[in-house]
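Researcher: For the annotation table, I need structure tokens for phosphoribosylglycinamide formyltransferase 1. Please keep the output clean. Sequence:
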Amino acid sequence: MRVAIFASGNGTNFEVLADKFAKKEITGNLVLLFCDHPNAPVIKRAEKFNIPYETFTVKECGNKLDYEKRIVEVLKAHQIDFIALAGYMRIIGKPILDEY
């Protein structure tokens, strides 16, 4: 199972999960971090684990619907099977829920 973690801030939850994936304590492969804050500390934590990340904002996309459609495109490009929310501070909308 290919997993993406969504996070928004410091990344302590992400780091715990990434460590558990690395130690095979969680089944699957952590293959992506998505963060909605381009300067969030969680990005450094992803780099520490050599986990690729994507980051962009609603503002960059123009509106929430286009933002979530772009997220779905990213998830599909990475062949994500499952997403985990670990301190992601946005409400997940229909485009993402319909896919995952």
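Researcher: And a one-line annotation?
Model: The two ends are 13 Å apart (CA to CA).
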